[in-house]
Amino acid sequence: MTIEEKIKSFLVDEMEIDSAKIRPDARLKEDMGIDSLEVVDTVVFVEREFGFKMKSEDFKDIKTYGQFVDYITEKVG
Amino acid sequence: MQRAMLKLFRFLPLTFAYACMTPVIPFFMLFDRRGYRASYRFFRKRIGRGPLHSFFSVYANEFRLGQIVVDRFALYAGRSFQLQNDGRAVFKRLEEGESGFVQLGSHTGNFEMAGYLLRPLKRMGVLVFSGETETVMQQRAAVFSRSDIEMVPVSQDMSHLFILNDILRDGGIVSMPGDRLFGSPKSFSCPFFGDPAPFPAGPYMLAAQRSVPMVAVFVMKEGVRKYRILTRQLGENLDPEAPSRVRGEAMAREFAAYLEDVVRQYPTQWFNFYDFWK
Q: What's the whole-model pTM score?
């Protein structure tokens, strides 16, 4: 599974987000409905799956799904 | 004013402080109509008491709340309380484990006593709501500093959840209420006293995502200076491979069922003075 596939699988299976809404330009909050509580769920997922810790500040620059995937890819790579 | 009260509570007999409240309670019943109606409906519809009995139960309910507040001040002033801990074995087993865990309370009984009376050995983060006076916050911090307890205020940007997440990751204890929505409107609908009621998704999802144990703790007033701690671990029989949302919701339902059992035993210690089911 690629990094993006893992992220997408988490968003669809765990967060129950409609897969049609998951596009690179989709905004996490407005388009995908991810609220602050789910941001913490996402942090736990990232820590478990990719082995590094995200801070609340990291999310200030991540607005879209594409930016989130790029951020993870850069950190893991 | 509060500093003076704290000084006073070092010496004032608790029974005297309680007695002073008796003539004040009717005014609360008269002027806090929303609270009165919620409490009256709770005793009528949920507990099944008659109209007159419900009226006097509201009085007893308000009086109990007053006692809890007085006890809290007495605690901050350095007074001690007797403790009957029915869940010591559960708590000890979880404390001795490497993993962190979530301790859930409720707006019933005197949950704040839990941190003080249990005196946890691990680091504990207690979620507190901002808006209380500096004096209260300082006294609370002083009492909690005797153990490794840190207060984590709820913040608009939800950064408190990140702090609590860090405490759990480092094997500590996170203590928060499991019965009231805060920050996020997401909830699980759980059967409670015969009807579905919303319970906050946050605490349950945090435990489920981190796959850490969750324990319900209720501290109920039994006498002038006596409290009883009731404890139950939640989600012990859940499939660890199930999606976190499924496990989170199952734990919320278990908590709601246990809370109902406890509130049926101590109905006048139910302090959610609003329509809990809306």
A: 0.87
